[in-house]
Amino acid sequence: MESNLSGLVPAAGLVPALPPAVTLGLTAAYTTLYALLFFSVYAQLWLVLLYGHKRLSYQTVFLALCLLWAALRTTLFSFYFRDTPRANRLGPLPFWLLYCCPVCLQFFTLTLMNLYFAQVVFKAKVKRRPEMSRGLLAVRGAFVGASLLFLLVNVLCAVLSHRRRAQPWALLLVRVLVSDSLFVICALSLAACLCLVARRAPSTSIYLEAKGTSVCQAAAMGGAMVLLYASRACYNLTAL
Question: Which of 103, 98, 87, 123 is nearest to 204 (CA)?
């Protein structure tokens, strides 16, 4: 891909998109924010342990995923202070961990939130219709399958791209189409679950009412997430 680009744009005509001072400032700002997020989540996990809350729950798994995501992002951005060329010449495993794994973790947190709110909705229905328990199992299987598909596509694309068995642009296109489609689908599912939880009273709406969230606010949050991931998909396709 580098040879194709060099044939289209002369190397002498390539200039940095931002001045070095701006780039350094943004790098410092992002590294600081990711580090603060890491220590914040780390402190919350210690509080869970200190106050004797359930150690294996949706909350602790969500916090653990966020902790790992923040750690990987902090490590990646720390490279850009003095050793940017090395960050672009990493081996297959470090490259995947720093560049691809955070995206997978972000998707896993989205599916985890889907599973939590879907469980709230289905447990409320199971009290009146016991046969709905099968629906909950199907939903869990669907989200686990989506997570495995997302992970498999990202790993395969990274491995094939490193071994140059296929055109890089084709691999990027496949990865973007699959990954962003799954992001948008999960965002739509989460928005639907939030609306269902907020509208069903009092067995499910109490989960949101405890946080002072109304039906309109839940719908707004769901719409914002759908818009966020849809705009991200459009941006990635436009960039390709």
Answer: 123
Range scoring the smallest mean pLDDT among 8-12, 57-61, 134-138: 8-12
Q: Which two tokens stand for residue 15?
A: 């200039």
Q: What is the pLDDT of residues 140-178, one digit of tens each?
A: 899 999 999 999 999 988 888 777 655 578 888 888 999
Q: Taking the chain, what is the end-to-end CA distance rounded to the nearest angstrom?
A: 13
Residue 19 backbone phi and psi in degrees, to 5: -60, 150
- Residue where the block lists tokens 């973790």: 105
- Measured CA to CA, the distance from residue 69 to residue 110 in angstroms comes to 13
Query: What are the residue ranges spanned by the domains of the chain?
Result: 19-88, 90-239
DSSP string, 41-100: HHHHHHHHHHTT--SSSHHHHHHHHHHHHHHHHHHHHHHTTT-HHHHTS--HHHHIIIII
The first and second tokens of residue 194, run together, are 């939030």
Count other C-beta atoms under 10 Å from residue 167's C-beta.
Answer: 13
Buried-state track 112-127, b at ≥16 Cβ within 10 A, e below 16: bbbbbbbebbbebbee
φ, ψ (nearest 5 deg) of residue 177:
-60, -45
